[in-house]
Amino acid sequence: MNQEDRIALLSPPGKAGETPPGPVRYWMQASVRTRYNHALEYAVHLANHRRVPLEVFFALTPDYPMASRRHYQFLLEGLADVQTNLAARGIPFVLYRESPPGAAVRLARESSAIVTDRGYTRIQRQWREEVARSSPCPVVQVETNLVVPVETASSKEEYSAATFRPRIARQRDTFLQPLSPLPYWNNQGPLKPGPPLPQADLFPGDPLEEPFPGGEDRAARELSHFLEERLSRYDELRNVPDRDWTSRMSAYLHFGQISPLEIALKAIDYHEAVLEPGDASGIGTLLEELIVRRELAANYTFYNPRYDSYQGLPQWARATLEEHRGDPRPWTYSLEQLQGAETHDPYWNAAQMQMIRSGRMHGYMRMYWGKKILEWTPDPEEAFNRALILNDTYQLDGRDPNGYAGVAWCFGKHDRPWKERAIFGKIRYMNDRGLERKFREISRYTRRWAP
């Protein structure tokens, strides 16, 4: 793995030369997979080089902010795949039910090194900083959930996709490189299955009415279905709500159960080997969303400390919303009414119910959904908070840079000023008539997900 930009020593400089006895341990937290995982392969490389055992562990905290049974179910299905797939490589996996930084620091006392993956939200970064401060052994972070490492792509918060896209374009091909699993020196054959993992019903919240299975093995199958069945017309149909022509990768990406690098490389290979030259728009749109748009969201979360707050919006957006704070709202709803899909708008209600029942929402409807929360809430700060609460509570891919950037986009982030109007000011506007004009069969979506 010759991509040094992915690797960072988090420990104080004095620990860099220390190699205390003990195994190398990979603290898996943001990348719950064994394929295309640069952090795992770096840990294997380090254990091979030092001729010490390797152990992979995950720390399951029962009180992760906004997480409920649906999120834990998806995560635990992913961890079951990890346990099985690591055992096939002769690498032991251990699940601890305790604070992630607490488990990592405790295990660091008997390790020669802690290797970990990278997250971009506040809590993920705080965990790694705490471990780096308290660990007696070196702590190495390896970035593996982006194609282009966040600081390599840009050294500052980017204004929009237009400013970010050329920066990504200059770096993309350098990092679009396959990653093969390394043989583990201490592999003595497949390991016996580990102890059963906890059950999701131990955690609060209702199960999904329409389950969406988690895990890297299921993610790989979903990716194959997408490439074979939907990639060729992805640009044309991805935004049509009643067709559900999306990639369905967002939850797997959020939990690190599939790598964006694997998606990109397999999509490029499939496009070149199977699709006709006229089908180029599908692969172009996929790479734009997977790399440019998704990594722009990581840029926002990484460089803007107020990414989950109304105060993190651009100054122009907050100014125009302030000018229209007192505008009359023809409709207003409480958070409880929004949660229950109890509005006058059948399209919005259907989108909310899709999220509640399935843990997913069609991408175009997600934009419409956020705009209407702004329109139907007495003030813009409360609207922003409500959108985040609902998104993080019900979406399988909630609590994610894409979710934070998506909510903020509804309030002007990564966008430009538009024609001024009531309530929205210069924020981009969407309405039900626009849905009806754009999608002739929008009623099919409404019937499918009606309360």
UniProtKB/TrEMBL annotation:
Instruction: Describe the family membership recorded for this protein in Swiss-Prot or TrEMBL.
Output: Belongs to the DNA photolyase class-2 family.
Question: Can you give the residue ranges of the Photolyase/cryptochrome alpha/beta domain?
Answer: 22-150
Cofactor(s) required, per the database record? FAD; (6R)-5,10-methylene-5,6,7,8-tetrahydrofolate
From the UniProt entry, list the residue stretches annotated as the region Disordered.
Answer: 1-21
Which CDD domains does the protein's record reference? USP-like
Q: Does the keyword Plastid apply?
A: no
Identify this protein by name. Deoxyribodipyrimidine photo-lyase
Cite the EC number: 4.1.99.3
Q: Which GO terms describe its molecular function?
A: deoxyribodipyrimidine photo-lyase activity; DNA binding
| Top-rank lineage group of the source organism | Bacteria
**Key words, A-Z:** DNA damage, DNA repair, DNA-binding, FAD, Flavoprotein, Lyase
- Species source reads Alkalispirochaeta sphaeroplastigenens
